Amino acid sequence: MGDAITPRSQDYAAWYTDVIQRAELADYAPVKGCMVIRPYGYALWEEIQAGLDGRFKATGHQNAYFPLFIPMSFMQKEAQHVEGFAPELAVVTHGGGEALEEPLVVRPTSETVIGYMYAQWIKSYRDLPVLINQWGNVVRWEMRTRLFLRTTEFLWQEGHTAHTSDEEAQEETLRMLDVYADFAENEAAIPVIKGCKSTSEKFAGAQRSYTIEAMMGDRKALQSATSHNLGQNFAKAFNIQYLDKNNQLQYCWTTSWGLSTRMIGAIIMTHGDDQGLKLPPRLAPIQAIIVPIAKNAEERSKVLEVVKRIAASLGKEIRWKVDEREGYTAGWKFNEWELRGVPLRIEIGPKDVAQGQVVLARRDRLGKEGKTFVPQAELLTRVKQVLDEIQHNLYQQALQFRREHTHEPHDYEAFKEAVADGFALAYWCGSGDCETAIKNETKATNRCIPLDQEGQPGKCIYCGKLAKEKAIFARAY
Amino acid sequence: MGDAITPRSQDYAAWYTDVIQRAELADYAPVKGCMVIRPYGYALWEEIQAGLDGRFKATGHQNAYFPLFIPMSFMQKEAQHVEGFAPELAVVTHGGGEALEEPLVVRPTSETVIGYMYAQWIKSYRDLPVLINQWGNVVRWEMRTRLFLRTTEFLWQEGHTAHTSDEEAQEETLRMLDVYADFAENEAAIPVIKGCKSTSEKFAGAQRSYTIEAMMGDRKALQSATSHNLGQNFAKAFNIQYLDKNNQLQYCWTTSWGLSTRMIGAIIMTHGDDQGLKLPPRLAPIQAIIVPIAKNAEERSKVLEVVKRIAASLGKEIRWKVDEREGYTAGWKFNEWELRGVPLRIEIGPKDVAQGQVVLARRDRLGKEGKTFVPQAELLTRVKQVLDEIQHNLYQQALQFRREHTHEPHDYEAFKEAVADGFALAYWCGSGDCETAIKNETKATNRCIPLDQEGQPGKCIYCGKLAKEKAIFARAY
Asked: Dihedral (C-alpha) B451, B454, B457, B462: value to the nearest 10 degrees?
């Protein structure tokens, strides 16, 4: 933990990697492009899982588990799907010492194998809707990888549902987009823009793809979760059919939606600063770190006695930890827990013991202005209150930052300046040619067509033709 | 759900598969030897995970995630390890459309890749012990597979720890064996025998392997979890070294321990009967199923009103569900939930509404003797009490069954009869030749040398030579 973190202004990518390694969130695996998620990073993922899983169950979904291996022939059944995923596949050709008759793909996503199973399970309209989620690992062979953002193997959840109508599938698609947005904003304190992906950016095999897009600290966009209306594409490829009320055989309408360990990258880059990580209290594995301060053994034993009592008073309502380690100065510990993004520090020294108080120090307001003295008896109440304030503040800061760097340019010159600074919200005619030209000229891609639109038509920022809606353009991860 | 379950007495293996498929715990995947865990089976796995994860964290362990892919060369670094696992490996030879320079193994277990990472992370005695657990999937290419018991891919947890001494590693190995035994007995209601594996049965690469062995309903043994003291074998293969207090470089002592979805097979076969599954209340995804009974719409609306109230009174302390489906008779629903192993049924009809009561029907005591009338006002208290009784009763029944089929034969003829009936606890000299001869002649294998021994030496049941300890022999899964 000795080396300094590269400042963001100097090299944002180096800052990002430094923070991850110094905070011990993750490490590089021996296999190229793969990642090890270390205990602190995994604890963060467990909090993310808990927040999402509760929301999935509250909206009627159940978890299940489908196999890691998919027959190569399955991938080929949906034309767009195989085209999109073929270049990224990892292929098992040998098992048990012998060459396999048919190579197996390590799942890059599970529409195909889940579609195959749904075709076995679904017989009648009474079996619908099927609302299933899976937590697991997937593999996509990536050329350029970056910890959490793009790794060959990553952890995620993938929801897969089947319905009796397009309307119901569309409702489900948007319901889960709302679930993701609610999670991102209220748990991760990340403001997001909900929108529809353009044809060139949609999921391989989807009818329509939706996304939540967030602005990172370097003003680039990060697609943070997606929800897809698959129409009848996979139902037709895998014969997912049911008998309707009139005893007629019909194809289902299916959806899929996913959020991955990439969310950890979003949290790092939305909130982090040159001191390191800054975790939103609702997801922080450690919400409050208690640091006893003592100059000698006598002081230490007095302080630790009180520390024990106040830790007990926090109970299980707060995720806290005491840093009792000897051989490290209090200042060193302060730095370390700031680097690791713990939202709140509780300091207690001999003076505080004498005065029946503790010091609360906020990670989101370093220095004197973030410090308050709190009577020990009021600790739990005050800690909960301050954690709520920090949660709110992180969200507001991120929202403010995004607003400052989001522009509505009215001509292409202003557009180019806008995407050099952050997000550009601009009319777009819907043509892939305009998207491509914009990308080639500015490196900005069409992030989404926001669901929230003013409604009047305008002129495409690139070609000037009629445009019904505005889109968000930005450089992106 | 129309077909009857094969009776156990007729074909135990068919009964097992019927129960799994009819109860919708799992299904066959399109890839040979792989399994789909359906929502009801996965919900059971989630309860198992919660029970174990809490115990792991209470004993100081943290979760982390290591990569799915392991370089083939890693597998070869520990001689016994590669010998044991080579025949079972699935191998990725292509990624992103190209042949890989070095083939990658899909992890069959993670000692090697975790050992490699520990070697990077551990520098000093201050970094020890490292106590990490991983929840994930592993792949072992199996010839003969059976749902939950032996599948090509399965879900499990694998703990991996590193220590400064053999004693500490041994303590950890036995601590986790105790955790497994405690979980099996108190959550899954499965009595287990804790013991040490013989050399021929130990984990490939371990110094000593420990197991918990349980007796299934067909009197065969099932190894239900294992804990391994790996000595310095993997530390030496992967250079897991630390500087001790005297600044001397030392090799660590490591352990590993695992429990898999096989535990679901153990639960099915320990408690199930010809009516189907019988789940222990502490792990049952649905602990109480509420079945409203009504002959017409008027009755139905009256009954449902009370059902709503009593369901609310159970709150979140009990995992309950109301089966409101129309178009199914009450009798059909009773059968279905019995088949699916729900410990307790709460019936409520018009008469019960009038009398302010409900009927509780126990899955572990079908028929009249398992039914009691309970005042609605006392429901929560009584449900909790009856669930505790069922939990206790399932354990006692399984223990009684194991006792009835465990024998202590004093000569080889009696031994042969004993292993034809169940478990034989007999003196064994420690020789692999005796084990092999016994296996060839009786199909029984050495399950374990129980930790609990009387302490006097005796004569080996096979060769008659001096034997210090007794071992459990049985036919096994």
From this structure: -70
